What does this fold into?
Amino acid sequence: MNDPIIKTEDLRFSYTNAEGESPVVLGGVDLQIEKGSFVAVLGHNGSGKSTLAKHMNAILLPSGGKVYVSGTDTADEEKLLDIRRTVGMVFQNPDNQIVANVVEEDVAFAPENLGVAPEEIRRRVDEALQAVGMYEYREHAPHLLSGGQKQRIAIAGVIAMEPECIVLDEPTAMLDPVGRADVLRTVKQLNRTKGVTVVIITHHMDEAAQADRLVVMAKGKVVADGTPKEVFQDVEGLKAVGLTVPDTTELLWQLRQAGQDVPLDALSDEECARALYDLLNN
Ligand SMILES: Nc1ncnc2c1ncn2[C@@H]1O[C@H](COP(=O)(O)OP(=O)(O)OP(=O)(O)O)[C@@H](O)[C@H]1O
Ligand SMILES: [Mg+2]
It folds into this structure.
């Protein structure tokens, strides 16, 4: 394994509620995110995904255990800026992440705050907008764009900080299918061409299936971790923690329940079609 860019060691966390109670939200998470990897995190509502994500750039600090970003303890207050520069966050609602009235000003906002020199900002803004396919919209008003376009602007804003890692918390949850596909393609491309490490939290099985690695959370713990092919084969296990599986896996699983000899790991549409073709021809 390459060096981990993010490492959690027995990470524990509780929020204290109005009644003064502190139910356990993260109950000991050990996770290493390898540099350059593309990791999806799945889990039922309330399983602790967002809480985990917020530990990845020190928005939250552990109640117990440790989180390291590039080897730096996130609890080290003096390193907060370094941590935020290394790991950028993108959230669900693009409207809450737009701060300026012109696209390119919006993208420039974060690097300006970091004190980056003006000519360097120009370069970064242009590059970030090109990377998300929104360069032609640089002089547009963000609030007139579609949800998917706005989310790509938000991603450009994070990229302009040149982070090594981007953590996206359900970035496609509020988008239509076209916007979803655009955002996912954008993120994938950043990973493949620029080597940006990506951690994406999603409720969409088809998005999770595209990751190199899939981490499943339930009740504040990691309950499965592997390639999508490996993880999705445990159909019963995933259903037991309130999740579904991709349509391809579900179909093959049903066929197996009915006694048919089909592979469970034919995850892509093409592989699944091939498995069905083979079944029908035998
Ligand atoms: N600010 C908060 N104060 C108190 N409790 C919280 C807070 N944020 C989350 N929780 C609780 O912590 C638990 C985990 O929440 P979290 O948001 O991490 O889950 P999640 O997996 O991201 O869920 P979802 O799929 O709904 O986004 C839930 O029981 C939630 O109610
Ligand atoms: Mg969440």
Remarks:
- Residues 15, 17, 25, 43, 45-51 surround adenosine-5'-triphosphate (ligand 1) (CB under 6 Å).
